């Protein structure tokens, strides 16, 4: 394949698109450290038995040790693609192809560290315009290629990987050059933005004109608008601004017969919603190139306050009461006791005055009769005019008190705000030390949340027993709605020789618990291949058949990211 | 067919399902009268030239004069259907079949008055359970029947009528016996309700337990939950409670391969949204039997206040400012000057004190420099705790003043609240007097509303000229959203010998204006056959093809209400 490489851009060095480190989350040189967090190592030792003071049992792998399957791209296809995007924008080198093979789930990280590459894309193509995307789609159909759109690469449900036995040429379509805010309709609060725009770049362009989109998923720093739409993302401030499905008004998606154009109208009664078919389509219906989203003027005031509750049950009840009240906070979040302990354990060492304050608080709460091991930390965010923020803080404060909780001020909220995008780094750090950790999230009606939560613990603990590990599940409520909320679970254990098999047992236990308890298979991570085994349980067999009918009719040749969502 | 009739229930006399009068809106004996509204006849004379003081040029037709095509139902199908629902619930009489042929659009009313029945359903079937619906669906596929679900019969986009050249047996599936509120999850604010429940019955069942759904379309008194979902309905209080698509969490829809069950979760990331495919599907994907909707505790306080604005532009700007503000009213509505004049003209004669107040107000406004002919009436609704209502009224009051408007108290709002469901009676009344009137509604971003509005007037006036009539268009903004609003147009003219051809010209002019101005083909009436000519313009040709693919894959035999939405 050397000839082909010489013809195409051998690497993406000259292409101005940011990618995460090939073997893990985030940018090179940034990682989680615990040396300045004295409570962290003892916490980890206690809950999952992993000794962080020992040597790392694994380190970031060496790329040179990996055996990367060669590109199968054929000369005519390379020529066709190069004609469209220019030779420098068809990239065939191993590193680029590996970066575009997986997302960043624990399954992805373990496979990449172990050089498990049943199939990597044969080329990475960087279109600069919708018209280039349209030509790539035409080429894909002409040559029977498989197209997999790629945004920031943060996916954790396997939506980016080629099917292992794919015989056809696989092209990863990196949308990173389509990264501009094209227009802001200031009268309507609507911004037209290209699908490949990454969170920080996009917010910067909007902020410069006084606007914000207000969509901040955990992956924000490394994910794209197109990716958010394609996976039905939800952000940390979605309580106020809505999930991506609520924010997304207009869309453009390239299909073989042209561009589907969804007008950015506030509401429409035009049959089954095409907008809502494209949202969540994970590349299976076509290539999303442009999205018109609701944007908001940067608020006068923005605050995140911290609260403590004597128990998880009290915290949940308080969030429910807030959702039922006239208060409209931007964030409602409460962690269970394990995640609360983890939060305190990841804080930097308290010294001097702040250590005294912390000890004073603990004494006070003990005197109040709290069991500090059951204490739950909550963050509630407020945005708007000074008056709106003040009023909402007062409304919430009353509700918190009524449920036995107490406010602990802005300090922890500021800290949360600074650290909020750092969590994904823990997956890599933990893996370095022989631990496996990942997440599962669901949504359910208020009435089902607590039974679901208990079932998740029971089911996960049975799974930990089965695989013979000391495991931990932590949880938080991350978003509130009128009729229910999202519960977000993090699970971790010290893995053995077959970490993926162990992971499968635990993951299955948790997803099964969602399904039997009336939750959904996923609240905002999507389906990909990771959640598709539970999709029929969630949407019913006839529902799945209806969805399959849509996918098959839209993609008879299975050229658009086949195998994702429905498994077919 | 006498034998068949003898076997089946000849009429629906014994079936406890309410229907509207066969030839028009609402219940027998209720109609619009203008005798007690002295300003009405002069207004109508002025704006469209129709003389209401003359004799009615038409009267409700006599059923006996009509020539109703006989039922084509064959004995084996009758037997099969009767086995499922019982003989008394398969109805073949002419009156029942006519009631189930059309909705209540002007096209429907004109056709029914003129005995135009290219095709009527061959039978009306009244299932009592989802399991009966499932058996009917199986029978439909076995015998290649056409199934058309029927709720309250209030549709105005032609979604209920059989295709004129349909050769197969057509069955109207009246959902009226599936009318119960099955369950209220008080913890989650979710009610499980059967699809055939009519608005008032449903609210009564909810109210009895302290709940309300808060969905009040114009058709409320004669429409069903299933119909609202199938057509993407929106209600008068949707500003606060959301459109039906927002309220609908869970769904059950019968398909040939079983029941699609959508879990009532607050949000989900499970691929293209099946929920949003079923909402708006107008019977084309299957039969909706049950819906889980968000419900709310009956508010402490509920008020509708009236406001006046010096111009339509000022009224629109004020609604936009309210949508951008911290205020969260339940209703935002402002009528243009023509509809305002019509509103005053349909008021009962003011006498004594109230006449003096009215005159005083007019003098006051003139002194302020208002041109009373440009004045626009607005209604804004508030619901919630006393404190919430008070606060919102204050917030809105400031915005109204800033835009040159003024509050005129509760009186008109109470009147509006009482009369709000009466408007559809006007269509029949006006037809009695030789006038044709109907409605078209759209939604567009704030920035496009005023240009769209002007284009509608220009385009409609060209149409009136073309058909040589004096016509009137009235408008109001009926719902506000973050990024735009719904504009609702009523048009009327004195029709000639070919009212439908004239209507077609005017209707086309208005829908064309929506499309060229960036609006949607319909905000909440649906597509049916009336709006399908504009669907490709709205959702783009590739978008329409994607939708057609879904419909074809879901209904290969075209047994589910064929021809609706996409025209195929």
UniProtKB/TrEMBL annotation, chains A, B:
Taking the record's annotation, the residue ranges forming a coiled coil are none
InterPro entries hit by this protein = Alkyl-DHAP_Synthase, FAD-bd_oxidored_4_C, FAD-bd_PCMH, FAD-bd_PCMH-like_sf, FAD-bd_PCMH_sub1, FAD-bd_PCMH_sub2, FAD-linked_Oxase-like_C, Oxid_FAD_bind_N
Highest taxon of source: Bacteria
Keywords in alphabetical order, please.
Answer: FAD, Flavoprotein, Oxidoreductase
Q: Which Pfam families match?
A: FAD-oxidase_C, FAD_binding_4
Q: Residues in domain FAD-binding PCMH-type?
A: 117-298
What PANTHER family does UniProt report for this protein, alphabetically? ALKYLDIHYDROXYACETONEPHOSPHATE SYNTHASE, PEROXISOMAL
What family is this protein classified in? Belongs to the FAD-binding oxidoreductase/transferase type 4 family.
Query: What's the protein called, per UniProt?
Result: FAD-binding oxidoreductase
Organism whose genome encodes this protein:
Frondihabitans cladoniiphilus
């Amino acid at each position: 394949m050397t000839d082909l490489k010489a013809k195409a851009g051998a690497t993406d060095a000259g292409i101005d698109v940011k990618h995460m480190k090939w073997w893990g989350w985030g940018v090179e040189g940034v990682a989680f450290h615990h040396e300045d967090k004295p409570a962290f190592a003892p916490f980890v030792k206690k809950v999952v038995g992993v000794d962080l003071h020992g040597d790392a049992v694994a380190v970031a792998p060496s790329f040179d040790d990996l055996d990367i399957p060669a590109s199968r791209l054929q000369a005519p296809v390379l020529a066709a693609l190069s004609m469209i995007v220019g030779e420098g924008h068809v990239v065939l080198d191993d590193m680029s192809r590996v970066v575009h093979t997986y997302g960043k789930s624990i399954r992805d990280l373990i496979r990449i560290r172990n050089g498990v590459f049943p199939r990597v894309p044969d080329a990475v193509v960087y279109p600069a315009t919708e018209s280039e995307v349209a030509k790539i789609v035409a080429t894909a159909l002409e040559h029977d290629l498989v197209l997999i759109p790629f945004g920031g690469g943060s996916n954790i449900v396997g939506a980016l990987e080629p099917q292992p036995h794919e015989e056809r040429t696989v092209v990863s379509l990196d949308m990173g050059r389509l990264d501009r805010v094209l227009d802001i309709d200031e009268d309507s609060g609507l911004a037209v933005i290209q699908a490949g725009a990454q969170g920080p770049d996009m917010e910067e362009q909007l902020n410069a004109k006084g606007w914000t989109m207000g969509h901040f998923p955990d992956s924000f720093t490394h994910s794209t608008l197109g990716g958010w739409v394609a996976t039905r993302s939800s952000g940390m401030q979605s309580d106020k601004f809505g999930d991506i499905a609520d924010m997304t008004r207009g869309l453009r998606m390239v299909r073989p017969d042209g561009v589907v154009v969804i007008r950015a109208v506030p509401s429409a009664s035009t049959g089954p919603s095409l907008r809502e078919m494209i949202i969540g389509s994970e590349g299976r219906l076509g290539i999303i190139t442009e999205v018109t989203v609701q944007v908001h003027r940067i608020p006068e005031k923005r605050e995140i306050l911290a609260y403590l509750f004597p128990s998880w049950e009290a915290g949940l009840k308080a969030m429910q009461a807030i959702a039922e009240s006239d208060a409209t906070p931007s964030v409602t979040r409460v962690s269970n006791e394990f995640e609360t302990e983890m939060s305190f354990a990841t804080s930097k060492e308290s010294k001097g005055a702040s250590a005294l304050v912390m000890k004073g608080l603990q004494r006070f709460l003990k005197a109040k009769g709290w069991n500090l091991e059951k204490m739950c930390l909550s963050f509630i965010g407020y945005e708007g005019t000074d008056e709106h923020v003040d009023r909402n803080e007062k409304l919430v404060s009353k509700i918190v008190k009524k449920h036995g909780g107490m406010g602990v001020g802005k300090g922890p909220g500021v800290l949360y705000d600074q650290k909020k995008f750092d969590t994904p780094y823990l997956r890599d750090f933990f893996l370095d030390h022989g631990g496996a950790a990942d997440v599962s999230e669901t949504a359910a009606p208020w009435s089902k949340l607590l039974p679901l939560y208990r079932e998740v613990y029971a089911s996960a603990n049975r799974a930990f027993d089965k695989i013979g590990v000391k495991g931990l599940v932590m949880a938080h409520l991350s978003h509130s709605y009128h009729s229910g909320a999202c519960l977000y679970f993090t699970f971790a254990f010290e893995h053995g020789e077959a970490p993926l098999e162990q992971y499968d047992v635990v993951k299955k236990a948790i997803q099964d618990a969602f399904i039997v308890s009336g939750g959904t298979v996923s609240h905002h991570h999507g389906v990909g291949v990771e959640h598709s085994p539970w999709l029929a349980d969630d949407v019913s067999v006839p529902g799945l058949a209806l969805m399959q009918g849509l996918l098959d009719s839209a993609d008879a040749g299975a050229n658009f990211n086949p195998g994702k969502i429905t498994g077919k």
